[in-house]
Design a protein that fits this description.
Blueprint lengths: L4 E4 L5 H10 L4 E4 L5 H9 L2 E2 L3 H6 L3 E4 L4 H9 L13 E4 L5 H12 L4 E4 L2 E2 L2 H6 L2 E6 L2 H12 L2 E8 L3 H29 L4 H9 L6 H12 L8 H18 L4 H15 L10 H9 L4
Parallel strand pairs: 1-2, 1-4, 2-3, 4-5, 5-6, 8-9
Antiparallel strand pairs: 7-8
Helix pairs in contact: 4-5, 8-10, 8-11, 8-12, 8-13, 11-12, 12-13
Length: 295
């Protein structure tokens, strides 16, 4: 029999990831903080909705959390009505949110005092890949916990990598997102330079895509930037949070990461322009502000 899965968080990513879990045939219990949302979702996906994260844990063998930040992860796992109230020796928590490695280790230690186990398993790939079940998942934690969770992870992802001890999944995710943000910032600035010097932007994209300037950001974000279409796949405020966390870890390690710091500043300006809920392709707005011209 497949293990019983609990899922905490049904936002842009979580709802699509949980749908893949249900489609794979795992018995599924869900919760999210918005009243009525879990029940509506469950009615469409052959799942059971309950009122608290603790109830999810009581009904599950493995509990996935996919929420916004460390504060929310701590709340749903350790807070009043949280998973910790039903923690037991056979319970495995798989946090797929993006939070600091320090928070992951602190939360895991608290759960461990009740006998429960934990993996940190953040994902990369936006909502279309979550819907298709083709996310990349980087997991940190004990090898035996990863082996147990792997069938579940494979229902949501295409590339599944055990990257080391607890917290290393989060660290790798923060570095990856910060590199992506730095690439997005560079792309925005390059597009503006091409436009200002009379380069045809279709030619820019075609040539750069085949050259040393190629990147996932060029493929995914050049069109939204050119159209100023910020339909949300990954929120600016969430990308800014990830870059900020990465820079905190970099500072603690004594490693400079100036390209990420520049991206942080542009994302901060993008947030200040009212685009926090929009896709981070809106970083073009901050670059345009610095240049004093529109793309």
């Amino acid at each position: 029999m497949p293990e019983r899965i609990g899922f905490l968080g049904l936002g842009i990513m979580g709802s699509r990831m949980a749908a893949r879990v249900a489609r794979a045939g795992f018995p599924l219990t869900v919760w999210t903080h918005t009243p009525g949302k879990a029940a509506a979702w469950a009615s469409e996906h052959d799942a059971v909705a309950v009122d608290t994260p603790g109830e999810v844990a009581r009904a599950s063998d493995i509990v996935v959390s996919m929420v916004v930040d460390g504060e929310q992860v701590s709340s749903v796992l350790l807070g009043e009505g949280g998973v910790i109230e039903a923690a037991r020796a056979d319970l495995l928590c798989v946090d797929m949110s993006t939070i600091s490695p320090l928070d992951s280790r602190r939360i895991a230690a608290a759960l461990g005092e009740r006998g429960a186990r934990m993996l940190d398993a953040p994902v990369t790939g936006s909502s279309p890949r979550a819907e298709a079940g083709t996310l990349t998942i980087m997991a940190g934690g004990a090898a035996e916990d990863f082996a147990r969770a792997e069938p579940l992870l494979r229902s949501m992802g295409e590339v599944i990598v055990h990257v080391g001890e607890l917290g290393q999944g989060e660290m790798l995710k923060l570095i990856n997102n910060s590199l992506g943000a730095a690439n997005a910032a560079a792309l925005a600035e390059a597009l503006l330079l091409a436009r200002a010097t009379g380069v045809d932007l279709d030619a820019f994209v075609e040539v750069t895509s085949a050259g040393s300037g190629a990147s996932a950001q060029l493929t995914l974000k050049s069109t939204p930037m050119r159209k100023h279409d910020y339909t949300t796949l990954f929120k600016t405020e969430h990308m800014l949070k990830d870059v900020r966390l990465c820079l905190e870890e970099a500072q603690a390690a004594g490693i400079p990461f100036p390209s990420a710091a520049h991206a942080r500043d542009l994302l901060t300006a993008t947030l200040g322009r009212g685009h926090g809920e929009d896709d981070y392709a809106a970083i073009i707005e901050a670059a345009e502000g610095l240049a004093g011209r529109r793309l």
